[in-house]
Specification:
This protein is an alpha/beta fold and 568 residues long. The chain contains 21 helices and 22 strands. Strand 7 and strand 8 form a beta hairpin.
Amino acid sequence: MRILFLTHSFNSLTQRLFSELRARGHVVSIEFDISDSVAEEAVALFRPELIVAPYLRRAIPASIWSRHVCLVVHPGIVGDRGPSALDWAIQAGEREWGVTVLQANAEMDAGDIWAAETFPMRCAKKSSLYRNEVTESATRAVLAAVERFAAPGFRPLPLARAVARGQLRPLMRQEDRRIDWSTDDTATIVAKINAADGFPGVADSLFGIACNLFDVHAEAQRPAGTAGDIVARRDGALLRLTRDGALWIGHVKRADRAGSFKLPATVAFPRETAALPESAAPLMRDDGQWGELRYREQGQVGFLAFEFYNGAMSTEQCSRLRQAYAFARSRPTRVIVLEGGTDYWSNGIHLNMIEAAGSPADASWDNINAIDDFARDVIETDTHLTVAALCGNAGAGGAFLALAADRVWARAGVILNPHYKNMGNLYGSEFWTYLLPPRVGVEGAAAIMRHRLPMTARESVALGFYDACLAGDQAAFLVDVARRAAELAAAPDFAGRLRDKQQRRTADEAAKPLAAWRAEELARMRRNFFGFDPSYHVARWHFVRKSPASWTPRHLARHRDLGWKIPA
């Protein structure tokens, strides 16, 4: 079936649906929702049998929905209507939410229902819920809707006949999100900021300066002070007191500067936070303390988690991660599991921090060298077997960084973007030229880097890119990883496996040192950062500032290929 996606962006949900439908044999093409005329042109060129709208910020024009079945993916339960569905659900403390696939008509979110799924809510950021529960539910619902569309005789359910507890709600505005630090308790504030995470953030102020707040974490222990006071810093975040507790504010966007973008709170306010005490969290600690890095052990297995916001790894974060990894290597264990974070394993270098630097070129160079240092540490580990366990998505350098481990296990449902070219034709490093070809072949490596398309965990295993695709549920995945890692550590031939690893590394080093692989990659990266071609710096500028798309990339819009023809 020819399926056209009308979408605002190629985000995590759109990528997942794109990959799942293509895997089932459908021909999928994408058009970004830039204008009515552009959408109409895409429909005329592609002549879709079905239109799916995974993520829109405005209504599909009547000129399209009146002539074609258009299925809108709405992140709300049956009957829920309006553009802030997930925001209201999080802030209201809903215990169950869902996704509804409905047919576009003249009234927003009021069309016939083709499929619906529900899921239990957890206390989490909107962006996290969207990437996980919403995406999983939307995938099931859309696949069901597509099957029903292809089935003769199926009739969708009119909303008026549905049993629905959802309701029409307006766009959530900043007044609805406003925090009163003197009266709101910690749970209320966390819910408000969680409901605004990703976009638009909660309008507030720090140090008397207007800004939007993102990325919040409750703190178990409340230091002395008055509600609203900022009393400490940790991993780029600020500890602010509430009426009944305290919370860490991880990221902010200043409102007093034109063109500002999200940054770690201490980076956004360097002068104001310089005198605050640094409250470091122990690497091995209880659940009540937040920190970006955490290490724990189960028997002969050590687990190192690195929960970096949006998967971005700054120069300083890479340095701290190396220190934590050195600690893990020093422990009397046999296997080290690199867990990454819940939402992302890694997305490579930290573009926002680079953009904020005095010299983005120098900052880019420092950052890629810092992440390469960590990759080298993992590759050269000869005391343990290592596992990269991807519970969350990975992109660009992060997707290749995982290959530094001896085993790579990914959760079913994880989306990978194993290429660098979308960021201004970056060549990439993280030793990918050393690590990738032995897994997929020279031609396979070239194809992966050239295609610029997302990849599911199952696809990655089929290609040999990663080693195993495990249970799709997050909790089940972590249990499975722990079990497999324990079996790896307890294997009767563990000593032989470790010895084989050491011998392979020694042989590889003799054939061509890691330093040589790195130097070749970085020579190409230096041209990206310091050369005459500004495409990386232009792409980074637009990425950081979330510039709206002006066109659909050609590799996504198949209908715009010069040789495009309707398949026979």
